[in-house]
Design brief:
It contains 8 helices and no strands. The radius of gyration is 22 Å and the shape is globular.
Length: 199
């Protein structure tokens, strides 16, 4: 029988494995940006999609949920800033979000993103946005589907924002920018109207 400590150790091992797989995906992405031949996009899309699917399947395996529940039962602790408590909180947040999204959608988003990047490079070289437009439309559609899977209360962007700023809502960002606008707009206007120029 797995103990809470063993469950936590399994989560650490999985986290390290997924970090390694993610770094491999990053290398493929870097190589795509620098050395990949123009006709390599289809194969790279397949490779990247496979890796994103593999990472997603490993992380959303039901055993991960069991390990989390077991570790949380004893290791979350009274100190919310304890290493184990922080790790468990972050893993739980990410796991709960990831399990709402089908692996097939994760793979399709990755595949589409790689092909979209290739189209963007071509569109930029030819100064022809029409080359990129259908890829961008598809990415937006897939991103909306992902947000719908994750769920939200008020604004669809809340589902996406939570990935980078957990707990923050679109309305919070709006208030933040509204507060900045009052200070920044006059400052930018004063700078643009100034006769002083950089030397």
């Amino acid at each position: 029988m797995t103990t809470p400590k063993q469950a936590y150790e399994k989560l650490i091992e999985l986290s390290q494995e997924l970090a390694t797989l993610s770094s491999i995906a990053s290398v493929l992405g870097w190589e795509r940006e620098t050395y990949m031949p123009p006709k390599g996009a289809t194969l790279r899309a397949r490779q990247s999609s496979y890796l994103s699917g593999l990472i997603h399947r490993k992380f959303t395996d039901p055993r991960v949920g069991e390990w989390l529940a077991l570790a949380e039962s004893e290791l979350a602790g009274d100190d919310p800033f304890d290493d184990a408590a922080v790790n468990l909180r972050e893993w739980r947040h990410d796991y709960d979000r990831a399990t709402k999204v089908p692996t097939e959608l994760v793979e399709e988003i990755t595949r589409t993103a790689v092909m979209a990047h290739s189209a963007w490079v071509e569109a930029r070289a030819q100064a022809d946005f029409a080359i990129f437009r259908p890829h961008l439309a598809r990415l937006i559609d897939l991103t909306r589907k992902r947000a719908e899977c994750i769920g939200y209360e008020d604004n669809i962007y809340d589902a996406l924002l939570d990935e980078y700023e957990p707990g923050m809502k679109t309305a919070d960002v709006q208030r933040l920018f509204d507060g900045l606008r009052g200070e920044l707009v006059p400052l930018v206007q004063a700078i643009s109207e100034s006769s002083r120029r950089p030397k």
